[in-house]
Amino acid sequence: MHFTLFQKFLVLIFLLVNIFSVAAQDLPVNYIKEKIDFYKKNDRGPYKSINWFCSDGEVREARDPCPKDKDNAVQHASYRDDTKELAKKYHLFFGEILASTNRTDFWDEANNQSRLKQYQLNKYLESIDDGWVQRKSQYYRGAIQSEDEQAWGIEFYQNFLPRDTRITNQYFLLRQSLRDIPHDGDNNLAQLMRAQSKIVADAFPKFMDARIKIHGNPTVEDIEMVKNFQLKYEKDLPQNLKTELSELQATMADFYAPLNVETLRNQVERISKNNSTRARLLDFLNTYQDTESPERTVPALADILCVIRTNITETTSGIDRLLLLDLSNSLEDVLLKKTQEWDPETVLELMEKIRHLSLAAAGTGLIELWEYEKVKSQLEVHLGTADVTIDELNQFLQTSRGIVEWSAGMVKATYGDVVETYSKFEPMAYSFIDDRIRSSVALNLGESVSRLGAMISEISALSNDVLDITSQTSIRGLNPGYAFGELVVVEESPEGIAIDTDKIYVFQKPPSDLKPVAGIMTVSEGNLVSHVQLLARNLGIPNAALSGENLKALSKYDGANVFYAVSEKGNVIIKKESDMSSVEKELFSKQERSENKIAVPVEQIRLDVCEVLNMRTVDADDSGKLCGPKAANLGQLKRMFPENVVEGLVIPFGIFRKHMDQQMPGEGISYWNYLNTTFSEATIMRRDGIAEKEVEDFQLKRLDNLKRAIEKISLDAIFVKQLQDGFKDAFGNSIGNVPVFLRSDTNMEDLKEFTGAGLNLTLFNILSEENIIEGIKKVWASPYTERSFKWRQKYLSNPENVFPSILIIPSVDVEYSGVMITKGINKGSEKDLTVAFSRGAGGAVDGQSAETRLLTADTNYLLAPARETNYLRLPASGGTTKNTTTFENEILNDKNIEDIREIASQIRTKIPQETNTDYQGAWDVELGFANDKLWLFQIRPFVENKKAKSSEYLTSISPTIDYSKKIWVKRKLNYD
């Protein structure tokens, strides 16, 4: 399964402060929309005039050719001033002409190849929107000279491909770019076919079913389907659509044409004779028969694609590498067609198809070669045997399903930043990623995996019941629970949308600051240890993963009231309110809801301790008394693992409480009285029958006022002096010279039935004394934000008794960081480890697609590779630096894995001994690596919702499965 934690609030701050967009400043969205609209209507689009561009950089009028070096001069359109302004100020490139573009600028390495990706995205938008910004300028004669664009493209690749790192790090991007950048007269037939079908369907809705077929399950029979459609509606179609349909049929005929072996052989023979791949390709072409069965051709094509990828760096010639990448794309196109012809009849044949398509995913760059090698053995469980168990089938399904998700994740990781930027002013950009996924082997691989899932569900009686949508085997439960509420399907970016606590949300990816909701479903699952997953897990919020197609299918139920349940086995039920049983309706009685409330214990809290503490002086026994569990547990860890834990300072509850006795400006009472009055008045309002929404709005308004006041509170001079002295004693340097983290650490965290993970503020790598002082106020104020309040208001019976302490620790500039759970989650046993890591600081938080592994005593299973391109580093000067990464290497090395196993073993034995605790559960440990040294940053109990897991209803919908039952591999797939 695809699962995807050092500081748990880092990514939220990162998104707010360090937006991934390459724009030099915030985008003026309305202005850009106006410009796009203008370009569409302007005869010259984004261009000003036709000019000569001389080799010495001079630009001359069209009637005045370059006087020198005429052969190297090019003629094309020049950009309007506002087009150049968009490029200079906002790094937006519309209507890009390549012929005079600096190739290094176009590669745009400093901005994660944004300019190249924008060129591809522009081409896509032009194909689906009648030219987009070039709606009229596509007819501007002389604006673009195709031969000059071709020549530029060839030279671009020949100059940039000789560097090995570009091939190994950007293999997927380079192959994709070849489909859009002119260099050899090629075009992207698959994309063109979908774009033409969209144009017809948008203008003539009766073509929509045909368009859906072409987009979702294309086959050669579609040519006849389109032809018959045109004949059927001949009298109703305007002439322009008849032309479009004829052009679509021609494109489809080209796309489904048999492989021209002679053309490919001519390309191969242009490769240098000393290149070993040349001989392999010639052998392949000499034995390839296009008429052979797809069961034979698909494995051969998948294998040769991997040969090209594996051996491409053996040559240093840019020309050879360009030829090999072009051949790879051509062979992939053949493979996609042959894959559609392969209709397995038995379990064995279906598993073989999935295995070979997984290899093709590696060969085409959708997954990395090392990722395939990690799971290869799990895809060969059926080889050389007459039968497999249901458990083995499930393992095969989980692995192959993961490869589908990793493949989609590669496309999203590659283009997500550019698509996110463009979607702000051009919603059509959002479909670009979906189009690229559909152009790849991931489409048919996903269909095959879904078919296998349906068969396994039938055999094991584990099936979903999600309204009336198709392909339900793609849906799988992550966290058990049940909910009732309005279904909200969010097809685009969720950032900024209003979240209602009583609704059930279906997201592509959940927002970074998700407030409590009734239920969650996500396409981008993220990882098991993100804030959303942890909160859902321990609060019994049903959470499931689904496919992009499932999300689209559910969109017709957007706004409907539904019942939603996820069992512990992972099967999912969604039904309309009218279809709920009496048992299901009874689950939502007010009495049960009130029983779910948890009390924050305050009986032993020590508010009399009002001095800054050295972290070495606190231990686990002080949690909830002097400070929160972060500081208490880290102090305990410092005693047990002194070489793996940083020094620290603790600002206890008592200092916060003492400051709250100050007079609150403009209110005539203390901060503390204002807080308590807020909750007591809310209680009176409820007693008087005032609607809960009105009560909540009253509280939120008051708490926002309190939050803003605390952010300006005056700090006691004695406290500041203690802080200054504490820095020197603990960190060996003055405040202002040591970059530190300020971590909110409340008494509501890590209760037996509730975790406050990620609800309050953490500030990181702060250096100056002024920023540290202001940061303390912000951390104290953070429990009164809307998000934090809503979570605890919903699940705590005494939310007014939340006290923040603060843990101050020096920054460690880790190369990669993440979390370890000392048990297997959803896979594995209590003795295993689940780890999730990402590059830089703040690894595996807020739904990042992190490198996730299941570690047993002697094995290391890859559950998911990383698919997060952006990460943070923490310089000694304070603040952060933004970096990008690629995925050709795994994050954790063998030494890291052994260090993790060793520290986990010690944690399991030392903590019970040192703390005399009776806690027998798993631990949630935040850690990181710098120069291969393991650093521990936090430990807390791993909290799961026992009520959800033991619910009689959830048990009733979980089937009993005999995982040892054997299935004959030659069993027929005789089901629909």
What is the name of the CATH superfamily of the domain at 613-810? ATP-grasp fold, A domain
Number of strands: 26
Using the coordinates shown, work out and report the CATH topology of the domain at 613-810: Dna Ligase, domain 1
The CATH class name of the domain at 613-810 reads Alpha Beta
Catalytic activity: pyruvate + ATP + H2O = phosphoenolpyruvate + AMP + phosphate + 2 H(+)
EC number: 2.7.9.2
Domain Cyclic nucleotide-binding: 421-499
Protein name: Phosphoenolpyruvate synthase
Describe what you observe in this structure.
This protein is α+β, with helices and mostly antiparallel strands. Among the domains are: 86 residues; 198 residues, ATP-grasp fold, A domain (Dna Ligase, domain 1, 2-Layer Sandwich); 129 residues, D-amino Acid Aminotransferase, Chain A, domain 1, CATH 3.30.470.20. The strands form six sheets. Strands 5-12-11-7-8-9-10-6 form an eight-stranded mixed beta sheet. Strands 21-20-19-18-24-25 form a six-stranded antiparallel beta sheet. A five-stranded antiparallel beta sheet has the order 13-14-17-15-16. Helix 15 packs antiparallel against helix 16 and helix 17 packs parallel to helix 19. The longest helix is centred in the middle third of the chain and has 34 residues. The two termini are 25 Å apart. The N terminus is likely disordered.
